[in-house]
C-alpha cells in the first residue's frame, strides 16, 4: 500500500487523553461488533456500514473540536455519532428501526442526526454531504460565530463532482470548513489505484488553493494534532483545509460484502500491526499509565454499555403507525 | 437606402424604449459604432451599426417608449444593408427601480376577491418587480434571509429579478455563485439546516436538473429522516418552462417533476399579486419550497393590491373567472391562455370557469372538485408534457372524487410528446394555445 504508519510515542498526549481515546475507540468497536451481530440476527435491516478499523479518525478529530463545531458525514456514520457523544441507546434503537431511535425509526443506519451534538448526519448519497457541510460552514461565516464544520467523506466520494464545486466555493469565500477524506483505500470494492488518477487525495484541493496534509489515520494522537492545526486554520479565517486520513476498514463495505477484492493477508497485516486501539493500549502500558488489568476494567464497562444499548434497542417498540405521516412538513 | 430596425435584445423582448441617440442626420457611421442606447425593463443596451453609411433620417425620437421590435428607427444612405446588433449587455445598475404606476380604479371581479380587503387601492407592477419586492421586503424583515445564485448580485440578475438588492443588502446577503448548480444548491440546503433561510436562484430551472439530488434527497427528505430534527427552510426559485425559441434544453416545464415529491412545496404563480404574495409566504415557510416562475411573464404588468405586507396563502387555488359550463384548470403562464380562451368561448355562449392552481403541492383539490360539481366538465391545461403531468393528477382526483358529476371525459391540453423544437412553427405546434384550449372545451361540451 506504500503507506507508513508512524505509530510513535506522543509526548503531547497525557495519560487522561490516552485513556479517554482508548475508551472512546473501544466503544465504537464494541458497538459496531454488536451491530454486526444484530444484523446477522435480522434485527437490523437494509444497509449497515461498519466503522471497525477507522476509529482513530473520528475520536482524534473530535478531540480537536470545540463545543458547537459541526460534524457531517456520509453513511458509515455510527462511529461519528458515538464520537460526538450521542446516546448509544438511541443509535442502536435507530438501527433496529424502533421508536426510541434518534430519528424515531424513520432514518435507519445512514440517516441519524443530533442538533444537540451538532451532528448533521448521516447522508446516503455519496458526496452530497460535502456540499451540505460547506453550507453549514457558510452559515458559520454568515453568523460570524467562530464555529468550524468538519465535513467527512470517503476516498470514493473524492471522485464526485460536487466535492470540487464545494471546494471551489469554500476556498473562494474562505469558509470555516475542515474537509476530512477518510481514505480507507476501497470505494466499496474498487481499490483507489483503480478509481483515482491522483491517489494522494490530500492533493485534491491544490487547484482550489486548499492546503492538504496526509495523516496517519490509525494513530489517534496524530489525528488529533493534525485536527487541531486544521481547525485553527479554518477558524482563523484562512478558509478550508483538507486532511487525508490514511485508514483501513476491517469489515466489508456493507454487511453483504465478502471483501474478495483484497487479500486476507492485507487485512491481517493491518489488524496485527496498525490497529488504532492496540496502539493506544501499548502507549498506556509502556508509559506506565495502565496495566492489562486496569484496561480490562474499561473493556468490561464498555461491554456493559453496548449490551445495554442492544437490549434497549430490542425492547423499544416499533414506531406508532401514526408516525408514518408526521415530519413530512412543518 | 437602408432602414435600421429596432433590435430584439433577448429571445422574449417585444418592445423597448429608445433611450438615447448617439448619431444625428448627416453623421457618417462606421461598422461597430454605437449609434443608440435602448432599454427594456430588464436592461439598457447599446446598439451598434453593422455597415457604414451616412444617416439620412431618424424615424423615432429620443425618449420614445414602447417601440416594437423590427420597427424602422433610422434610415442610412450607403452601400450594403445595415442591421444593427447589440453589444454585450453591460451590468446595468443604471436603470432605476421603476416606481409603481398608479392604476385605474378597481374594476371587474377584483372587488369580490376575498383575499383583498375592501377599499384597497391597486398599483401596476411587473411580475419581475413583484418578485424583487417580495425578496427585498422579506430580507428587510428577517436577517437570516439571503439570496444566492448565478449573476444575482453585481449583474443584478440574469433577468433583473434581483435588481438593486446588492446595493441595499450588500454582498454578504446577495451572493454571486460560480456556475455550479449542484454545489450551491447543496450549500444552500446546508445553510438552511444550520437555520438560515436561503433563497437559491436558478438562472432557469433547466439548470437545476444538475441540482435535483440536493433538492429532493437533502432538502425534501431530511425532516422526515431525522424524525423532525433537521429543518430546511429554503426557497429554490427561477424561471421555468418555455421562453421563446430557446429549444429543448432550455424550455422544460418541471411542474410535475417537483409536484411528485412529498416534503416539497411547489408554487407556480401567474400574476404579479400572486408572485409577490406567494413568494413572501414561501420565504416565511419552514419547508423547502420550489417556486416556478415564468420568463414570458416577467415583463407583464398586473395590478397588485397596494397593501403593506401582501401575503397570499400557500395551497389555495384561485377562481380567476367564474363560469357554469366547464372547469379549466391551469397554472403559471397557461392561466393567461385559459382566460383568453374563456373570453373567446363566452362569445360562443360557453361560460368557462378558470381555476388558477397557484400551488401544485399541496394541490387545492377541494376548489377543483367544487367547481367540477358545478360545471360537470373538466379541461386541464399545462405547459409540460402530458404523461404523469399535473393535468393527469387533476383528472385522477376528479374522476375518483367527482366521477358521478362528470358529463364528459376530462380532457388534457399539454405540450406534445416530443422535446420542444427551435423552429417557430414547430414550437407553436408543440405548446398549448388558446385555440387548443377552445377546441378541448368544445370537445367536452359536445359543441
Can you put this structure into words, describing what you see?
The complex is a heterodimer of chains A (330) and B (447). Chain A is globular, with a radius of gyration of 19 Å. In chain A, helix 1 runs antiparallel to helix 10 (276-286), helix 4 crosses helix 11 (292-315) and helix 5 packs parallel to helix 6. Chain A has helices at residues 15-40, 55-62, 78-83, 88-95, 128-143, 161-172, 192-195, 220-238, 264-274, 276-286, 292-315; strands spanning 70-72, 149-154, 177-183, 186-187, 190-191, 212-216, 241-246. With 330 residues, chain A is α/β, with parallel strands linked by helices. Chain A is built from 11 helices and 7 strands. Residues 80-109 of chain B have low confidence and may be disordered. Chain B has 447 residues and is α/β, with parallel strands linked by helices. Chain B has a 7-stranded mixed sheet with strand order 13-12-14-15-17-16-22, with helices on both faces. In chain B, strand 4 and strand 5 (44-48) form a beta hairpin. Chain B has 13 helices and 24 strands. The longest helix of chain B has 15 residues, at 127-141. The A-B interface holds A 70, 72, 101-107, 111-115, 120-125, 128, 130-140, 142, 161-162, 165-166, 168-169, 172, 326-330 and B 146, 172, 177-178, 180, 182-196, 213-214, 217-218, 222-231, 262-263, 265, 286-287.
Amino acid at each position: 500500500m506504500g503507506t507508513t504508519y508512524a505509530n510513535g510515542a506522543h509526548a503531547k498526549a497525557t495519560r487522561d487523553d490516552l485513556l479517554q481515546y482508548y475508551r472512546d475507540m473501544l466503544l465504537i468497536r464494541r458497538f459496531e461488533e454488536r451491530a454486526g451481530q444484530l444484523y446477522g440476527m435480522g434485527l437490523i435491516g437494509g444497509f449497515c456500514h461498519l466503522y471497525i478499523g477507522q476509529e482513530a479518525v473520528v475520536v482524534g478529530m473530535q478531540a480537536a473540536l470545540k463545543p458547537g463545531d459541526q460534524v457531517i458525514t456520509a453513511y458509515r456514520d455510527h462511529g461519528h455519532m458515538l464520537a460526538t457523544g450521542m446516546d448509544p441507546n438511541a443509535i442502536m434503537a435507530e438501527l433496529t428501526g424502533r421508536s426510541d431511535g434518534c430519528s424515531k425509526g424513520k432514518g435507519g443506519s445512514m440517516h441519524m442526526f443530533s442538533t444537540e451534538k451538532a451532528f448533521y448526519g448521516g447522508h446516503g448519497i455519496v458526496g452530497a454531504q460535502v456540499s451540505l457541510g460547506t453550507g453549514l460552514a457558510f452559515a458559520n461565516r454568515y453568523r460570524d460565530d467562530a464555529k468550524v464544520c468538519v465535513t467527512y467523506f470517503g476516498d470514493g466520494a473524492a471522485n464526485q463532482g460536487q466535492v470540487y464545486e464545494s471546494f471551489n466555493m469554500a476556498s473562494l469565500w474562505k469558509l470555516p470548513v475542515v474537509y476530512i477524506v477518510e481514505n480507507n483505500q476501497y470505494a466499496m470494492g474498487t481499490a483507489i489505484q483503480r478509481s483515482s488518477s491522483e491517489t494522494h487525495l490530500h492533493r485534491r484541493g491544490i487547484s482550489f488553493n486548499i492546503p492538504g496534509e496526509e495523516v496517519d489515520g490509525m494513530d489517534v494522537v496524530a489525528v488529533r494534532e493534525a485536527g487541531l492545526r486544521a481547525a485553527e486554520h479554518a477558524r482563523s479565517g484562512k478558509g478550508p483545509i483538507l486532511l487525508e486520513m490514511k485508514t483501513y476498514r476491517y469489515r466489508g463495505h456493507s454487511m453483504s460484502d465478502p471483501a474478495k477484492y483484497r487479500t486476507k493477508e492485507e487485512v491481517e497485516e493491518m489488524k496485527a500491526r496498525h490497529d488504532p486501539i492496540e496502539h493506544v493500549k501499548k502507549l498506556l502500558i509502556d508509559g506506565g499509565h495502565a496495566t492489562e488489568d486496569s484496561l480490562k476494567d474499561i473493556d468490561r464497562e464498555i461491554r456493559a454499555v453496548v449490551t445495554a444499548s442492544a437490549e434497549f434497542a430490542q425492547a423499544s417498540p416499533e414506531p406508532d403507525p401514526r408516525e408514518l405521516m408526521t415530519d413530512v412538513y412543518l | 437606402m437602408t432602414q435600421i430596425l429596432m433590435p430584439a435584445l433577448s429571445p422574449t423582448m417585444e418592445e423597448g424604449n429608445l433611450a438615447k441617440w448617439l448619431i444625428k442626420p448627416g453623421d457618417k457611421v462606421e461598422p461597430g459604432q454605437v449609434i443608440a442606447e435602448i432599454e427594456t425593463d430588464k436592461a439598457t443596451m447599446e446598439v451598434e451599426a453593422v455597415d457604414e453609411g451616412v444617416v439620412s433620417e431618424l424615424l423615432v425620437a429620443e425618449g420614445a417608449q414602447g417601440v416594437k421590435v423590427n420597427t424602422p428607427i433610422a434610415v442610412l444612405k450607403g452601400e450594403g444593408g445595415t442591421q444593427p446588433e447589440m453589444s454585450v449587455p453591460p451590468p446595468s445598475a443604471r436603470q432605476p427601480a421603476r416606481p409603481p404606476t398608479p392604476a385605474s380604479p378597481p374594476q371587474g371581479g377584483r372587488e369580490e376577491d376575498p383575499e383583498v380587503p375592501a377599499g384597497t387601492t391597486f398599483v401596476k407592477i411587473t411580475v419581475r418587480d413583484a418578485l424583487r419586492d417580495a425578496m427585498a421586503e422579506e430580507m428587510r424583515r428577517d436577517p437570516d434571509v439571503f439570496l444566492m445564485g448565478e449573476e444575482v448580485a453585481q449583474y443584478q440578475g440574469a433577468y433583473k429579478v434581483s435588481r438593486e438588492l446588492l446595493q441595499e443588502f450588500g454582498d454578504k446577503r446577495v451572493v454571486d455563485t460560480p456556475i455550479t448548480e449542484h454545489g450551491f444548491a447543496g450549500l444552500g440546503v446546508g445553510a438552511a439546516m444550520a437555520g438560515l433561510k436561503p433563497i437559491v436562484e436558478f438562472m432557469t430551472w433547466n439548470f437545476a436538473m444538475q441540482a435535483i439530488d440536493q433538492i429532493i434527497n437533502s432538502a425534501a427528505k431530511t425532516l422526515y429522516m431525522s424524525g423532525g430534527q433537521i429543518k430546511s427552510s429554503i426557497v429554490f426559485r427561477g424561471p421555468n418552462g418555455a421562453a421563446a425559441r430557446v429549444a429543448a434544453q432550455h424550455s422544460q416545464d418541471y411542474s410535475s417533476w417537483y409536484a411528485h415529491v412529498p416534503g416539497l412545496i411547489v408554487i407556480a404563480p401567474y400574476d404579479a399579486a400572486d408572485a409577490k404574495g406567494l413568494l413572501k409566504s414561501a420565504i416565511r415557510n419552514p419547508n423547502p419550497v420550489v417556486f416556478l416562475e415564468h420568463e414570458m411573464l416577467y415583463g407583464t404588468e398586473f395590478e397588485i393590491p397596494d397593501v403593506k405586507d401582501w401575503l397570499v396563502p400557500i395551497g389555495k387555488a384561485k377562481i380567476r373567472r367564474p363560469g357554469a359550463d366547464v372547469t379549466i384548470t391551469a397554472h403559471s403562464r397557461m392561466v393567461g391562455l385559459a382566460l383568453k380562451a374563456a373570453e373567446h368561448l363566452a362569445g360562443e355562449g360557453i361560460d368557462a370557469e378558470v381555476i388558477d392552481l397557484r400551488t401544485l403541492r399541496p394541490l387545492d383539490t377541494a376548489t377543483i372538485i367544487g367547481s367540477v360539481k358545478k360545471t360537470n366538465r373538466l379541461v386541464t391545461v399545462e405547459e409540460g408534457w402530458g404523461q404523469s403531468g399535473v393535468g393527469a393528477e387533476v383528472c385522477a382526483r376528479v374522476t375518483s372524487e367527482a366521477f358521478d358529476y362528470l358529463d364528459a371525459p376530462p380532457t388534457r391540453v399539454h405540450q406534445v410528446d416530443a422535446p420542444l423544437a427551435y423552429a417557430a412553427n414547430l414550437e407553436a405546434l408543440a405548446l398549448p394555445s388558446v385555440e387548443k384550449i377552445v377546441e378541448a372545451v368544445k370537445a367536452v361540451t359536445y359543441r
